[in-house]
Write a structure and sequence with these properties.
about 200 residues, mainly alpha, two-stranded antiparallel sheet, 10 helices, about 50% helix, globular
Length: about 200
């Protein structure tokens, strides 16, 4: 589908009073430019259903960290898993998805490249990148540092995508903080200063 066809398809759903629910194959065919164009056209005022894979992720989250799921969805009066169309570009990367970055009742574990800024961070990440590109084994800490240095990611998507136990991932965060590689900003208010 062209950008114009996608926009018309969205308009048809919106005019019919429906939440936009993109077919899964659309997410695999969209480019970053297309997603940005659609987002620019519709702005943040129209709603969309999370992609199927993101809904599956949130069902996993509900069983693995219910407090986080409740912080995000428990007070939603209508159906959960409906978000602003402004998030459409976030769904193009299946390893990241809907950013979990504004939790109020539990600690945030959302990281952006600017938080990989400890005194040892640059050399550490570069060494991990070389190991990764050489297809050598990396630790959870090394993989997490590399992922955080590349693009924004939360610990829950990281754990789910890589099939790593959630508590092991949280211990990796603490190790990276202790080693002065990663800054862990726990509150939504403090984290807002790092998010574009």
């Amino acid at each position: 589908m062209t950008n114009e066809e996608i926009a018309q398809w969205c308009d048809d759903h919106i005019e019919a009073g429906q939440t936009v629910c993109f077919p899964e194959e659309l997410f695999t065919s969209l480019t970053a430019e297309s997603a940005q164009a659609i987002t620019a056209h519709f702005g943040a005022h129209h709603l969309m259903q999370l992609p199927t894979r993101e809904q599956e992720f949130f069902e996993w989250l509900k069983t693995h960290d219910e407090a986080v799921w409740n912080d995000l969805w428990a007070n939603v009066e209508e159906q959960p898993y409906v978000v602003s169309m402004a998030f459409l570009p976030a769904f193009l990367d299946p390893s990241r998805g809907f950013p979990i970055c504004d939790l109020e009742s539990v600690d945030n574990y959302f990281f952006v490249p600017a938080l990989v800024n400890g005194e040892n961070a640059k050399d550490f990440v570069e060494a991990v990148r070389e190991r990764f590109l050489a297809k050598q084994k990396v630790t959870v800490e090394q993989l997490l540092a590399l992922e955080c240095s590349l693009a924004p990611i939360d610990i829950w998507h990281f754990a789910w995508h890589h099939g790593i136990e959630l508590e092991r991932c949280k211990r990796a965060v603490q190790t990276l903080v202790d080693d002065h590689i990663l800054l862990h900003v726990r509150t939504a208010a403090e984290l807002a200063g790092f998010i574009e």
